[in-house]
Specification:
The structure holds two protein chains of two kinds. Chain A is built from no helices and ten strands. By secondary structure, chain A is mainly beta. Helices cover 0% and strands 50% of the residues of chain B. The chains are: A mainly beta, B mainly beta.
Chain lengths: 108, 127
């Protein structure tokens, strides 16, 4: 199975700052079948990005995804208060689908 | 609007069984594969099982294969997860999720990203 490793584990930033989250795969993720989710406490995950770089419906343009092969990045250009959450990457190129362990973005 | 509502969670003793349900609305349930994903307390997301749009194909994570059974009733727009021989390590919030993949016909998709999730139901396995 494809193992996804996210870094850093925790990112401490202030509102208005830029956040850069990394997701590295143990083998190439074909067709850039890589998604990103946001999860706030007590809530279900919310789809942000699919196909490595396409924003899901209703997602603000401060969220962007990039990358291919084994290295992918989620960037939040200017952190809003509601963006402090845990972020997961997920690959759907291989079976079974797998998730990264998550990156927590916390208020500094 | 798409809605997924799970139910059936609770506290159960090790070795016992539990059946989860996920009621779907707002879309043509019979045209989509559906998944269960779980999250242990304070941990990350773990894929559990998938069922094809017509119920003919089912796949499971190694950790639950042989103990859990996924099924669906399209006449009731409901997804199920029968969990037998429960263990402490099965304690988690269980989410049902609709799967999609860009550019694909929905009935051909088993593997993809999860565009809609339920709110989750907590299963606690404890004596």
């Amino acid at each position: 199975e494809i193992v996804l490793t996210q870094s850093p584990g925790t990112l401490s930033l202030s509102p208005g700052e830029r956040a850069t989250l990394s997701c590295r795969a143990s083998q190439s993720v074909s067709s850039s079948y890589l998604a990103w989710y946001q999860q706030t406490p007590g809530q279900a995950p919310r789809l942000l990005i699919y196909g490595a770089s396409s924003r899901a419906t209703g997602i603000p343009d401060r969220f962007s995804g990039s990358g291919s092969g084994t290295d992918f990045t989620l960037t939040i250009s200017r952190l809003e208060p509601e963006d402090f959450a845990v972020y997961y990457c997920q690959q759907y190129a291989g079976s079974p689908v797998t998730f990264g362990q998550g990156t927590k973005v916390e208020i500094k | 609007q798409v809605q997924l509502v799970e139910s059936g969670g609770g506290v159960v003793q090790p070795g016992r069984s539990l059946r989860l349900s996920c009621a779907a609305s707002g879309f043509t349930f019979s045209r989509y594969a559906m998944h269960w994903v779980r999250q242990a307390p304070g941990k990350g997301l773990e894929w559990v099982a998938v069922i094809s749009y017509d119920g003919t194909n089912k796949f499971y994570a190694d950790s639950v294969r042989g103990r859990f059974t996924i099924s669906r009733d399209s006449s009731k727009n409901t997804l199920y997860l029968q969990m037998n021989s429960l263990r402490a390590e099965d304690t988690a919030v269980y989410y049902c999720a609709r799967v999609y993949r860009e550019g694909a016909v929905t009935t051909m998709i088993l593997r993809g990203y999860f565009d809609y999730w339920g709110q989750g139901t907590l299963v606690t396995v404890s004596s």
